[in-house]
Design a protein that fits this description.
The protein is α/β, with parallel strands linked by helices. It is built from eight helices and five strands; from the N terminus they run βαβααβααβααβα. The chain has a single domain (2-203), classed as Rossmann fold, CATH 3.40.50.300. It has a five-stranded parallel β-sheet, sandwiched between helices. The longest helix has 25 residues, at 60-84. It is globular, with a radius of gyration of 16 Å. The chain binds P1-(5'-adenosyl)P5-(5'-thymidyl)pentaphosphate.
């Protein structure tokens, strides 16, 4: 099964992807964690460009194509082989981030995004998607706390204004309403353990 975890900045995706993979392994499943953009040498190089290129920042169309190039490489070289080998793959972001950020956020046409994404993924779609939803103020506080701890500064996309981030949330929630069989909305407020439990319940797995 291919599971993706989605949501806005700082909602706790990375933390929960790690916990979900550990839990799948404890239940006897072979599981692999990947992140987007990233997960192959080429895709990690593209990730650096997307997050940190300030001198010649990608325009909206170039940004879209870079995310899709990274995804094509990850799908072909990592995700599809792992699924064929019987593993459960859990991805920290995937195609819904493209629709939310480049579609609802940047305003690129959704119909073109669907065709381009389908081409990049060679038709692969997640079986299940967990959308972690949290009030922007809670996410911001988590990111501030992490920045103070790690001394890391915000990346290019995190710096896009509050309006952009509000459109993302709206876009994610709209996609969840349109795809109720695949996307479950999980409340990401509360402790890490509480959110982990909600995610596990939302997946309704047999063990
Ligand atoms: N993007 C990505 C696109 O525009 N289009 C696309 O197609 C794709 C795939 C990726 C960027 O690229 C964009 C989206 C992003 O801007 P990234 O660094 O991977 O960049 O950014 P994020 O995915 O947003 O990752 P973050 O690390 O910023 O946020 P997470 O993963 O949601 O949050 P996490 O788990 O790192 O937690 C943040 C902090 O909160 C704490 C954690 O310890 C951490 O310090 N935390 C909690 N604190 C209290 N209670 C909880 N329940 C907590 N859960 C976590």
């Amino acid at each position: 099964m291919f599971i993706t975890i989605e949501g806005g900045e700082g909602c706790g995706k990375t933390t929960q992807v790690g916990r979900l993979v550990s839990r799948l392994e404890r239940s006897g499943r072979k599981a692999l964690m990947v992140r987007e953009p990233g997960g192959t040498r080429l895709a990690e190089l593209v990730r650096g460009l997307l997050k940190d290129e300030r001198e010649d920042p990608p325009c909206d169309r170039a940004e879209l194509l870079l995310f899709l190039a990274a995804r094509a490489q990850l799908v072909r070289n990592v995700i599809k082989p792992a699924l064929a080998d019987g593993a459960w793959v859990v991805s920290d972001r995937f195609c819904d981030s493209t629709f939310a950020y480049q579609g609802y956020g940047r305003g690129l046409p959704l119909d073109i995004l669907r065709i381009a994404n389908d081409f990049a993924c060679d038709g692969l779609l997640p079986d299940r998607t967990v959308l972690l939803d949290v009030e922007p103020a809670v996410a911001l506080e988590r990111m501030r706390e992490r920045a103070a701890r790690t001394k890391e500064s915000a990346d290019r996309i995190e710096l896009a204004g509050a309006d952009f981030h509000a459109r993302l949330r709206e876009g994610f929630l709209r996609m969840a309403a349109e795809n109720p069989g695949r996307i479950s909305v999980v409340d990401a407020a509360g402790t890490v353990e509480e959110v982990e439990e909600r995610i596990w319940k939302s997946l309704k797995l047999s063990v």
